[in-house]
Structures are given as structure tokens and as C-alpha cells.
Amino acid sequence: MELEYAVLKVPSEALMKHFRASKKAVDKEVESCVALMNEYNAALSASTWPTAGSSQQHQLLKDRLDKQIARLKTLKKKWVVLCQAEQKALDVLRVRVQYVKRYFEIVEGYEENGTNDGTGAASAGEEMSDKGACDPSTKALRLLQWQKTRLYRILVDHILREGLYSSAQKLAKEAGVENLVDVDVFLTRAKVIESLGAGDCTEAFKWCVENKRRLAKINSTFEFRLRLQEFVELRRAGKIAEATQYARKHLSVGMTMSQDGMTTQFQTVMALLAFEPDTRCEPYASLYAKERWKDLIAIFKNDSYMLHGLTHESLLSILIKAGVSSLKTRFCFAHDADGDTFEYNVNCPTCNEPFQSLARDLPFSHHVHSVLVCKITGKLMNEHNAPIVLPNGNVYSESALESMAKESGMVFDPRTREHFVYPPSNPNDPAAEFKRVFIM
């Protein structure tokens, strides 16, 4: 369940973001209103108020009060919109809490009344007990339903990361997991990525302003790198005066706030004032390269994942790698003299393509106890299917030998292409000895 951290992190951050926006808007208007009311009360208590000369001041205060009332009415409309956004974020958070809670209810064997809201919860017509153990078959079915919901959520997340937003939205809607996936986050991210891909920093700067406090918490240098890139583009266009002015306004201030290690890059970028865009001198030629926009996109993705508590890889990729790695053994990649896989097992995913290619760079699984698999049948060899050593030293399962010897009384070793009588006609002959293997 540790992988489900982002499920609750993203809506929680969205809720806090809407709350801060609402508070900021209200505080600003309330402060203005209080100041005006203090001014109005001071005028009412002044000794000059009853005189005829104060009528002009009276009208001025009245006009200002009318304007303030109009502003408060506008704030009320804005407040309604903000409250709706907060409520939407709260509803999403509620659904996701129920989704996570549902898992523990199933595995711990008790239920709470609920409805199917896309979280894998039970239907409204289903009777559930507040406490007590569930029937094993019912528990397994409900766990399967929850896992199916999770699978759809993971698939949608992976498709979103691949940039297939329409397909992801369609799948989320059909699977009923719209409240469990962060489509809005990826759509916002897509605008920034598209803008950076076109060589424009506008959307990226907007994103930095919206997340200024959170970016500061993770010591992000993304905004400063954007400033450096804009300076490079001004210099590329030959606007040396504008580039110098831009550096004085933005980069000199940014240097006091940037992380260690950015000073050297700042000095190198400033040296571009002395180098033309067609220079071949490094590192200045690399600073003019268009590939720097791809670097900015990569940095933006990394910071975006950190802000929302998302993993850098999709959960689908993480889970597949973990599963494939747990099956990978050295025998899956052992080859004979002809280059063929020596310990090929038809039932092992990592012995077969395409998983063998996927597993090639992954670590081998760690097994405390040995696990033997029959080369012939592909089944596990254990106390119920004992491993038997042939006279030539190769090991196969007892069931495989019995199956081969059922008709002809002979067993065939596919590795050495030798034939042996099984069971041996002369048990006392050492050359025909079959031994059972015991695993410690």
C-alpha cells in the first residue's frame, strides 16, 4: 500500500491549494472593507461632520461604501466558485480514502455499509455486517474486485504518462475510476511540456508562480533555469542589450536564491555575450543547442512528480519490474555452446520473450531456499514430485520419468539424448542407479 501514497497526496494538495486561494481572496477584501469602515467611523465621530462643509466628504464616503458593497458582491460570486472547487477536491479525497480503506476492510475480514462509487466498494443492495469474518469465497471475490479497480487505475496512470490523454480519459470513464486518477494534473503538465517543446517559457512561468512555495520547499532550480534559457534565447537573437538588462533584472536576484552548483552555470551562460550562436567552442556551443529544451522538460517532469508525491516511473512499470525480477534466475540466461538458452522453461516468463528482454538489466531474484523445476514438465520438484538423479547425473522429476517409462519402460534424457531403463532391471548395477535428491 506504500505505492498508493500519491492517491491521497494529490487531492490533499489540491484541497489545500483551493483553501489558500479562497483565504487569500477573502483576506484581501476583508482588509479593504475594515480599513474603509474605520475611515467611515472616524469621519462620523469627527467634530466637523455635522457642518455644511462636510457634505462633500459625506458623499465621498457614501460613494466608496457603494463601491465596497459592489466588490463584496463580486467576492461572494467568486467565493461560490471557490467553494465549489473545494467541494470537488473534498469529494475526490473522500472517494480515495474510501478506496484505500476498502482494502483494509477486505483483508481484515469486516465491512462497513457503503455504495459503489468507483472505489471497489460493495453495492448498495449488498448486505454487509459491521463486524465478523467474511466468507472466504466472498472475501476473495471482493478482493478481486478491488484489485481490478486498482489495475484500471494503474493502467490509466501509465497511459497518462505516455501522453495519450484522450485514451486515458476514455478508459477512466468506462472503468469508473475517474475520481481515482489525476487527469487534471497531467493535463496541466501537458500544457507546460507542449509550451517548452515549442521553445516558450510562458506556461512554465505560470506553473512556477502557482507552485512557488512548494517549489521552494524542494529547493527547485527550475525557474532559475528557465531564466537562464530565456537569456540564451535573447543572445541567440542578437539582442545583447535586452539580454544584459534581463540578466540584471532576473538572474542577479536569482543567484542569491539558487542552490549551490548553479553559480558556475550562471557564469558560463553570461560568457555567451562574447560568443556567437554558431560557435563551436565548448561548453558555449552546448548552451546554444536546442536539446536544452528537452533538459528543461525532464527537470519539469521531475519537479512535478516531487510536488505531487508521484513516482518517477509509472506504477505499472514498477510492478512489472518487481514481478519479473522476482522470477529471474541465472538459469534463465544460461546458454550452451550453440548460444541457445540452456535451462529453458516453457512456464517461466523470464525464459521467454518478451519478458526475457525486459528482465535482462534487472537484478536476479533472491531465494533463501532452492527451488527446482523439472526441465521436461516445467513443474516444481518437491516432496510430492521428488527430483530423481539419472545415472549420468542429470536431474528430472519423478512424474516425468514415470510418464516416459509408462509405455516402453525407457526414459530419454533430452540434454544428452541417452536412454535408460526405468525402473532399472538390475538395481544393484551402479551404472543404472537412480537416486532421489533431498533438498536441505
Can you put this structure into words, describing what you see?
The protein has 440 residues and is mainly alpha-helical. It is built from 15 helices and seven strands. It has helices at 5-45, 55-107, 136-161, 165-175, 183-197, 202-210, 212-217, 222-236, 240-255, 262-270, 284-288, 292-308, 315-327, 355-359, 398-408; strands at 372-373, 380-381, 387-389, 395-397, 410-413, 418-421, 435-436. The strands form three sheets. Strands 4-3-7 form a three-stranded antiparallel β-sheet. The protein has a two-stranded antiparallel ribbon with strand order 1-2. The chain has a two-stranded antiparallel ribbon with strand order 5-6. β3 (387-389) and β4 form a beta hairpin. The protein is elongated and about 130 Å long. The chain starts with a helix and ends with a strand.
Query: What is the distance, rounded to the nearest whole angstrom, between the alpha carbons of the first and last residues?
Result: 34 Å
Number of strands: 7
**Number of H- or I-type helical stretches:** 15
- Could you give a short account of the major beta sheet? 3 strands, antiparallel
Please trace the helix and strand order, writing H or E for each element.
HHHHHHHHHHHHHHEEEEHEEE
> How many structurally independent domains?
4
Q: Using the alpha-carbon principal axes, give the shape.
A: elongated
Q: Which range best describes the helical content: under 10%, 10-25%, 25-40%, 40-55%, 55-70% or over 70%?
A: 55-70%
Beta-strand level of the residues, as a percent range? under 5%
Uncertain spans? 120-133
Biggest sheet strand order reads 4-3-7
Tell me the Rg in angstroms: 35 Å
What is the structural class? mainly alpha
* Mean pLDDT level: 81
